[in-house]
Amino acid sequence: MKWHNSGLGHLSAVWSGRCERRSLSRVMSKQGICSRREAEQLVRAGKVKVNGKLASSPDMLVALDARIELVGQPTPLPKQHLHYIVMNKRKGVTTTSCDELGRATVYDDLKSFLSAEGITERLFAVGRLDKDTTGLLLFTNDNDLADFLTAPEHQVPKTYLATLHQPLSEQAIAQLQHGVTISVRGQSYFARPVAVQLHSRRKVELTLTEGKNREVRRLFEALGYSVDALIRIGFAKLRLDISQHPPTLNGHPLDSGQCLRCLPQDIWSLG
To answer: Whose C-alpha in 101, 124, 244, 247 is 20 to 30 A from the C-alpha of 258?
Structure first.
């Protein structure tokens, strides 16, 4: 199954509940990619990416769940079963495999579901939701799909329902529709939702295709509004129906903190 022709050879990420870090060469060996000596050669030749970025040294410390890719696919990839799991992320958990402050993570909720389903392959989250944002979060071991969904040029839609602390003014609504300049890590970006729908003056549904860090919250902050609650109700073709109690996905109940299997064609059109 190919979602785009990237020219990259992808290897599945490893999930671990432990906050351990090891040298990249050792992690590559542990994941069964190659020997440590071969890993050193590949890294120095510029053939290894870690979490989407070119590796700088075989001695760099990486998490055991690091997502490692080989550029150019120099060796055939082992066959693996691909899985697609959708979670209705609950509030208060971080989107990380280990939290240095000891806080609960999405993988704590995912682990029990994988065990009950008999899934032994190791999955990673496609993108992130901040600790206080709830809603749709996809997990998979399909690197091609994950790369496709997170590549900015593919403009994959993400829809959010924001509950604001105070009602929006007419001027703020117009500004939101025309776009707002926001600051992300010291850099300014022009962010414009591709769709804005008012459920009420305090409840706003908006769709974005970029996915900058905390973009929705930053949009409203730039307009002088704070967000009391934020839920992602749409991701790619997936749609969480929050009018139902509990919420549903494709007609199946998906309560807060729960997971469901889905098919790749439920997420995006096959290419």
So the answer is: 101
